[in-house]
Amino acid sequence: MVMEINSSEMKRVQLFEVLGRVDSTNAAELGLAMDRAADEGRSHIVLDLGGVEYMSSAGLREMVRVLKRVKRAGGDLRIANPSDRVREVLELAGLDTIFEIYSTQVEAVGSF
Fold first, then answer.
1. In a 3-state reduction of DSSP, which class is residue 96?
2. What's the pTM?
3. Residue 42, number of CB atoms within 10 A of its CB
4. Strands 100-102 and 76-80, how do they pair?
5. pLDDT > 90? residue 2
6. Nearest to 81 by CA among 43, 34, 47, 110
Protein backbone atom coordinates (compact mmCIF):
# COMPACT_ATOMS: atom_id res chain seq x y z
CA MET A 1 0.00 0.00 0.00
CA VAL A 2 1.30 3.44 -0.87
CA MET A 3 1.23 6.27 1.63
CA GLU A 4 -1.78 8.55 1.82
CA ILE A 5 -1.85 11.83 3.76
CA ASN A 6 -5.08 13.56 4.73
CA SER A 7 -4.70 17.02 6.22
CA SER A 8 -7.29 19.08 8.06
CA GLU A 9 -7.40 22.09 10.34
CA MET A 10 -8.95 21.60 13.76
CA LYS A 11 -9.17 24.71 15.94
CA ARG A 12 -5.56 25.87 16.09
CA VAL A 13 -4.10 22.47 15.19
CA GLN A 14 -3.08 21.03 11.83
CA LEU A 15 -4.02 17.36 11.77
CA PHE A 16 -2.35 14.87 9.44
CA GLU A 17 -3.83 11.40 9.12
CA VAL A 18 -1.27 9.10 7.55
CA LEU A 19 -2.14 5.74 6.02
CA GLY A 20 0.03 2.98 4.55
CA ARG A 21 3.80 2.71 4.56
CA VAL A 22 6.20 5.55 5.32
CA ASP A 23 9.57 4.62 3.83
CA SER A 24 12.55 6.14 2.02
CA THR A 25 10.56 6.54 -1.21
CA ASN A 26 7.89 8.79 0.30
CA ALA A 27 9.09 10.12 3.68
CA ALA A 28 10.05 13.45 2.07
CA GLU A 29 6.45 13.82 0.88
CA LEU A 30 5.27 13.60 4.50
CA GLY A 31 7.92 16.13 5.53
CA LEU A 32 6.87 18.53 2.77
CA ALA A 33 3.22 18.31 3.82
CA MET A 34 4.15 19.24 7.39
CA ASP A 35 6.54 21.96 6.14
CA ARG A 36 3.70 23.59 4.17
CA ALA A 37 1.64 23.79 7.37
CA ALA A 38 4.60 25.31 9.23
CA ASP A 39 5.15 27.77 6.34
CA GLU A 40 1.55 28.92 6.87
CA GLY A 41 2.28 29.57 10.55
CA ARG A 42 0.63 26.39 11.81
CA SER A 43 3.11 25.21 14.45
CA HIS A 44 0.72 22.91 16.36
CA ILE A 45 0.77 19.64 14.44
CA VAL A 46 -0.80 16.28 15.24
CA LEU A 47 0.21 13.19 13.28
CA ASP A 48 -2.37 10.41 13.47
CA LEU A 49 -0.37 7.26 12.73
CA GLY A 50 -3.13 4.72 13.38
CA GLY A 51 -3.21 3.67 9.73
CA VAL A 52 0.56 3.37 9.30
CA GLU A 53 1.68 -0.23 8.90
CA TYR A 54 5.39 0.52 8.47
CA MET A 55 7.61 3.47 9.46
CA SER A 56 11.23 3.59 8.28
CA SER A 57 14.09 5.60 9.72
CA ALA A 58 13.57 8.09 6.87
CA GLY A 59 10.05 8.73 8.17
CA LEU A 60 11.33 9.13 11.72
CA ARG A 61 13.97 11.62 10.50
CA GLU A 62 11.28 13.77 8.84
CA MET A 63 9.20 13.73 12.01
CA VAL A 64 12.17 14.80 14.17
CA ARG A 65 13.18 17.50 11.66
CA VAL A 66 9.69 19.02 11.62
CA LEU A 67 9.43 18.71 15.42
CA LYS A 68 12.59 20.82 15.79
CA ARG A 69 11.26 23.35 13.28
CA VAL A 70 7.86 23.86 14.95
CA LYS A 71 9.41 23.95 18.44
CA ARG A 72 11.57 26.89 17.30
CA ALA A 73 8.28 28.60 16.38
CA GLY A 74 6.81 27.88 19.82
CA GLY A 75 4.79 24.87 18.66
CA ASP A 76 4.94 21.11 18.90
CA LEU A 77 4.39 17.96 16.87
CA ARG A 78 2.37 15.36 18.75
CA ILE A 79 1.52 11.81 17.77
CA ALA A 80 -1.93 10.28 18.00
CA ASN A 81 -3.05 6.69 17.88
CA PRO A 82 0.18 5.04 16.69
CA SER A 83 -0.28 1.49 15.44
CA ASP A 84 1.46 -1.16 17.56
CA ARG A 85 4.25 -1.50 14.98
CA VAL A 86 4.86 2.26 14.83
CA ARG A 87 4.81 2.57 18.63
CA GLU A 88 7.43 -0.20 18.81
CA VAL A 89 9.63 1.60 16.25
CA LEU A 90 9.31 4.88 18.20
CA GLU A 91 10.26 3.10 21.43
CA LEU A 92 13.22 1.27 19.86
CA ALA A 93 14.51 4.56 18.44
CA GLY A 94 14.05 6.28 21.81
CA LEU A 95 11.65 8.78 20.26
CA ASP A 96 8.82 7.96 22.65
CA THR A 97 10.61 10.26 25.11
CA ILE A 98 10.85 13.12 22.58
CA PHE A 99 7.33 13.06 21.15
CA GLU A 100 4.16 13.38 23.18
CA ILE A 101 2.10 10.31 22.23
CA TYR A 102 -1.65 10.12 22.75
CA SER A 103 -4.03 7.15 22.43
CA THR A 104 -6.59 9.09 20.41
CA GLN A 105 -6.74 11.91 17.92
CA VAL A 106 -9.14 13.82 20.21
CA GLU A 107 -6.68 13.67 23.13
CA ALA A 108 -3.77 14.80 20.97
CA VAL A 109 -5.65 17.72 19.42
CA GLY A 110 -7.08 18.69 22.81
CA SER A 111 -3.63 18.70 24.39
CA PHE A 112 -2.74 22.00 22.69
1. helix
2. 0.95
3. 18
4. parallel
5. no
6. 47
CA distances from 94 to 2, 20, 88 (A): 26, 22, 10
Q: Which residues of 3-13 are buried (b: 16+ CB within 10 A; e: fewer)?
A: bebeeeeeeeb
User: What's the whole-number mean pLDDT along residues 56-84?
Assistant: 97
The predicted structure's pLDDT at residue 1: 65
CATH of range 4-110; options 3.30.750.24, 3.30.870.10, 3.50.50.60, 2.40.50.100:
3.30.750.24
Nearest Cα residue to 37 out of 64, 71, 70, 85: 70
Mean pLDDT across the stretch 46-70?
Answer: 97
Judge whether 110 and 11 are in contact, CB under 8 Å: no
- As a whole number of angstroms, the distance between CA 61 and CA 69 comes to 12
Domain boundaries, the chain: 4-110
11 falls in which pLDDT band (50, 70, 90)?
confident
